[in-house]
Amino acid sequence: MTKQQGKILVVDDDEIILLTAKMFLEQYFSEVNTLNIPKNIPDELDKQTYDVVLLDMNFRQGETSGKEGMKWLKEIISISPETSVLLMTAYGEVNLAVEAMKEGAADFIVKPWQNERLLATVQTALKLSDQQKQVRHLKSQQKILSSSADHQAGDIIGRSKAIKEAFTIINKVAKTDADVLILGENGTGKEVAARAIHRQSNRADQVFISVDLGSISETLFESELFGHKKGAFTDAKEDRTGRFEAASGGTLFLDEIGNLSLALQAKLLTVLQNRKIIKVGSNHPVEVDVRVICATNSNLYNMVSEGSFREDLLYRINTVECTIPPLRNRIEDIPLLTDHFLEIYCKKYNKSKLYLPEGVIKRLQKYSWPGNIRELQHAIERAVIMSDGNELQSRDFSFPGDSPKEEQVFDNYNLENLEAWAIKNAIKKHNGNISHAAKELGLSRGAMYRRMEKYGI
Ligand SMILES: Nc1ncnc2c1ncn2[C@@H]1O[C@H](COP(=O)(O)OP(=O)(O)OP(=O)(O)O)[C@@H](O)[C@H]1O
């Protein structure tokens, strides 16, 4: 008979009860452990996660109040909320057991038990615990997904020779489970490419979770990626599922991998090698089944020679490399992309279809687009908002460096104008590298993006 997967813990001060329960339950469930001292419960739950705990109500000779059982019930629920607790009561203590169910126990078993009834009750409790885990998993996925929903994009648009080379790699690698490293300047569409790989993969009906490693602080890195146990640190008010676990079964996109410190690179490497995570505050490894796609705008090979990126991590993540070309090297794609964004923004701002004259397209193709497609997208959005009539004009676009307004900025010392000017020029100076520009301005990447959004850059 194949045993059902399930970890059961039986807690009772009576060794005979422990032995009988263990011998019986072990025939049906994959792991059954026992404890005769309830005060060891917290340590045991810290070591491993149990699906079901069978808990005695009284642990002292002659004691029938059930107070101790109630205390441990609350403790178990607070340490491990997804564990189903079954209380074991003596005949006549049924009222107490009902009281315990109000406190969160899944059910109760009257001692001496009938084996079939014990088996059925434990099986139901196991199912309940599985469902609770699924609900928690879905909730945390939902939370993470809704926070990244704004960044979702459609298919990769483009027909230039340069982007077709990237398509070839994407199509070849998608069906495999190989780890992929996507390289390219900021805003070229690395995340769009990662989503395209996911959509064509065997994991397409599972989640795609994206993490911007550049915006996670050093202290929160482990908790964000691997999760934490309640109480692991001051702000850990409840258990938290990390991105690796939430992405299990699907694809995890690690953006800006070049921004990780050497210490965090070592932690990430261990997880990528073992495919197991350990939550902060726990010492119990959890297996994760994720396909990892990394991206960066940094030159990781240079970083390896400078000693700021681990060579072993680079070779762990770059099984296949795919470079997304900058927009200035694929100007043939500009008409397609502008059409695409015009459609989106005309709809968004309730404008009737806008036309882009040939001359304006040529002007757009002459510009170097240091912020790549993201910059083009913002430029079109701003032009749609500014436009009158059904045609966009060159004046509806403002290109840093060629606008006479640039000089006027200093006429009135308006701080917002000055800030927008500084941001645009820092991006230009660093050839579209947002991280480097943000560093020069003394901003985090997150703060930089918020300001770019604000000023429509
Ligand atoms: N080929 C494309 N077709 C349509 N939209 C695109 C394309 N490539 C990029 N975009 C859009 O451009 C913006 C930037 O894309 P994305 O976030 O994928 O770039 P990135 O290279 O990952 O940027 P970063 O390096 O800053 O993280 C997004 O809004 C995305 O929808």
UniProtKB/TrEMBL annotation:
Q: Does the keyword DNA-binding apply?
A: yes
Sigma-54 factor interaction domain residues are 156-385
Please list the residue ranges annotated as the Response regulatory domain.
7-126
Which residues are annotated with the PTM 4-aspartylphosphate?
A: 56
An example of a GO molecular function for this protein is: ATP binding
Q: Which Pfam families match?
A: AAA_lid_14 (PF25601), HTH_8 (PF02954), Response_reg (PF00072), Sigma54_activat (PF00158)
Asked whether the UniProt record includes ATP-binding among its keywords, one would answer: yes
Q: Which InterPro entries did the record assign?
A: AAA+_ATPase (IPR003593), AAA_lid_NorR (IPR058031), CheY-like_superfamily (IPR011006), Homeodomain-like_sf (IPR009057), HTH_Fis (IPR002197), P-loop_NTPase (IPR027417), Sig_transdc_resp-reg_receiver (IPR001789), Sigma_54_int (IPR002078)
For the biological process aspect of GO, one term held by this record is: phosphorelay signal transduction system
Q: Which residues cross the membrane?
A: none
Q: Which superkingdom is the protein from?
A: Bacteria
- Print the keywords alphabetically: ATP-binding, DNA-binding, Nucleotide-binding, Phosphoprotein, Transcription, Transcription regulation
CDD domains per record: AAA
Protein name, per record: Sigma-54-dependent Fis family transcriptional regulator
Q: Organism source for this protein?
A: Fulvivirga marina
